[in-house]
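Chapter summary example.
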Amino acid sequence: MTIEVGDHWVGIDDLVRIARGGEAVALSAAARQRVAAARVLVMRLATSGQPIYGLNSALGANTGATLDSDDLESYQRRAVRARAVAVGPAYDTASVRAMQFARVAGMARGGSGVSPAVLDACIALLNHAVHPLVPRFGSIGVADLPQLSHLALPLFGEGKAEFGGEMMNAGAALEKAGLQPVKLGVKDGLALISSNAATTARAALVLHDVATTLKAWLAAVALGYEGFRASLSPLNPAAVAARPATGQVEVAAQLRQLLKGSALLQPGAARRVQDPVSMRVVAQVHGAVQGMVESARAQVEIELNSAADSPLVLVDEAADGVPNGGVMLSNGNFHIPALALTLDACAIALAQAASLSVARCQRFMSPALTGLPLQLTRHGPAHSGFATVQKTLTALWAEIRLRANPGSLDYMPVSEGLEDHACMALGVVEKLGELLERVRYLVAIELLIAAQAVDLRGLNEAELGEGARAAYRQLRAIIPMLDEDRPLGPDIDCVQRAVAAGLFDWTASAAPLQADCA
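The structure predicted for these 518 residues follows.
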């Protein structure tokens, strides 16, 4: 299936299908007309004598320096080369495809003034699976200039790109794909790199994965309620509606759905009048998390559907008193603090939920609270059971807490002080991705502990709520109950991979009972 850009709203799910599913991209007819009209204006203004940033005036600290008229095209290639300063490990193929698509979607809005031929070349690279080598480090969030320069180099045969699973010189990759290098015209280089497409793309992928993890997390919580024999009164619809803070009504409803049919819903089923706070406030904390994630998703989709170029090409705006003469305006739309701040907030919110998860897991170790054997082993003090997993939990919490620190404040002025503010958005995205990886390990541990508690309590599957029962079955299909002590690290690794793959997504119509535990 081909995803058309330029007219319809592009969502995160569309980007994921292209990045991870390999779907193709096409430019709508209306978008092609917009791009062509903007290009006509760019070509007219390039020789108008009016100084315009990045068109006939130099970039960065050289702002205001006039470019020679016969050097305008060569300058665009040099601008890309000079900004290809990203370093470090290369992004994976899915992330690069996401970046390619995000930039295509942005240019399709018609505000970049890119040459139609260059935009077509970008689409061809994506559809022919030519994936530029893009290093991770370098962006400060004032447009992802370093990453997007590496993304652009292969268009004119420079840099490196992956094709057919092999990394090679870009010229060779184009030849193998049956493509030709494209010639950059005036403003084309700036159009390719003056964007936050790398941040937008990575944020889309990370937030998609956050959503998958949150579903598995609630399944783990529900299974833990079963194993603990917790009171479900905190999920009462009237109770959560009495103070409808962000997301808590929805999360409580999701947990009730997971526990539909549970014996815990019977009067007197709970063992305690009131459980530890970490079990009572899941709706409040996870509701806040879901609210932050939805806010971040909205910001990402704004970026995917906007023309955020500077200078911005506006074909129908008045120029020098001439109606509909068209203008190119320097502006601040390259700056994305709203996205950076919501991503920082997502990290803090996930850390809040992580602290609850660690506390819940720790509570399961105590017979006084659970009525279950110490450390969840039925073999007594000669066996460790889940005791030493508490060290793993503590280590993961420390890693998560570190990455919950805001990253959007950590900037320094550059370019002779002209670029004196930055939001470090790409770094914030990557920090959130690293935090999420560690959260998935916590979810895996919580699933293992919850299922162990269910087994030790001798519960029949029929006594479990529908969603909790499905999570229990899915877990036990890949990991057996802990009886004799064994290395639990491989079990945790296996389950976290299953969480990442969506095995515990209780909202899916059918989840495969398989995971890579090699």
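To summarize the output: The mean pLDDT is 93.
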